[in-house]
Input
Amino acid sequence: MSLREELEDFYTEYSEVIDGGALERWPELFVEPCVYRIVSKENHDKGLPLSLMLCESLGMLKDRAYASKELNVYAPRAWRHSITQIRGREDGARISARANFVVFETLPDRHTQVLCAGRYLDTLVRTEAGLRLREKLCVYDAALIPGSIVMPL
Amino acid sequence: MNSRAWPAEGDSRVPYWVYTDEAIYRREIERIFEGPTWSYLALECELPKPGNWKRTWIGEKSVLVVRGEDGVVRGFLNRCAHRGVQLCQHDSGHVRQFRCPYHQWTYDLDGRLLGMPFRHGVKGVGGMPAEFDFSQHGLTPIRIAARRGGVFGSLSAETAPLESYLGEKMLAFYDRVFDGRELRLLGYSRQRLAANWKLILENIKDTCHASLLHVFFVTFGLFRVDNPSKVRMDDTGLHAALISERGKQELNEGTRQMHSFKQQLTLQDPRLLDTAREFPGDATVIMHTFWPNLILQQQSNTLATRQIVPRGPHEFDLHWTFFGYASDDEEMTRRRLRQANLMGPGGLVSMDDGEIITRAQAGFRSAAEAAGINEMGGRDYADSDHMVTDVALRAFYRGYRNVMGL
Output
């Protein structure tokens, strides 16, 4: 299997975990030490350090997943990731991956909307369980988020 | 709108038409945002050098703030004096002059019209009339007030100076955060919410919801209704500060030992809530609402302004600007960035607010004649030393009715 095919399989699983509502499995796709960030293109381009979501350990990923699934109060919704233009480069023990993402969101009484679109700038490693994320940076394009981002991108 | 009558119960009831009626909204724009008020526009640290500009808003109006060659921050409508084209479309930048791309009318940083191509015609034909007065066709200036790092603007000549507009009591709260230290910009979050703009101010003034809606707070023992708390307001009722303290255990030992009193849950990684005292006094959280468009938050170590931009009765934009102090060490900056997880469009706490006010707006849409009830804690307007009260909402609507003539 080529690296691109491996990455495609990984991102397919990644999107199925989130879109399928199995957020408690989301941290399993990372390996410690890990960093997960959602950053606006504006902050990213200007070199500003603020994240919209920041998890600096498996523990923080689990806390976020738990909060999103059990604690936060938000309207019911369907999410659908589309992850495309996947490219990867293996450099020793690390794989740098780039991809485009779009998240479609469907809310009650509303047409399906694009919640946001952007780029994944990721670092993965090989483990016995398969590819796992060491760092995931989601840079979203939107100047204004329509509503809220209630789950990880 | 003329058929709209405020409920007989008075300021403790809020008729839903104030959130849905187009004519009410137009009156708000005219009397509030374009009236004698100071709207928050920017932080001075966003304009570090002469020529730095930022695109911002007063009500629905797009506004530019720019630092001049003399170091003074000035404000203009973001509109070319020629044909009304928006001068700037990016969020910020640096220029020597503003030049409209359409016909290249050019302005200096003070907003003066410097010139345009073909002014004297081409090969003896055309050109602007000889009597065309450049001094009458600069950018439209707006009044600016800057205080200790915050920049405000007003479209009205009647607006009192910022200090008396906020009043001594609220100014003391403002100065607690803007204490004269240089600020450091950490970043922006921006969202559009399908709700009336007043609802986000109400959300901050509504003390009761924090321990009820925000299950995250409660689960991890961050906030309980019995935490020592105060509500402080100005005479108009429009500005307010909500002050609360966390438990002493948290203050003394950080949050590593916090448990939910119900569920005994702990964070897998308690660094999220590893707060540090940095302001004098016992307050750990002060949420300020400064009429009409600013929420200033000091939520433990996250400092942010939230600027409200109304977009019709059913929508508004919320622009979050997170900041710290230039003197912060790396650890404090990390703490601010980590705690920012609670705030913004994906905030562990704030997402609940954005979602619930959207849900409230959905409720109002089909019930303009019904009214909300703000009677927790009675029907008075006095400062409170507890949070089991809607007093800041009553005071807000008393002030709102005065301004709006309702």
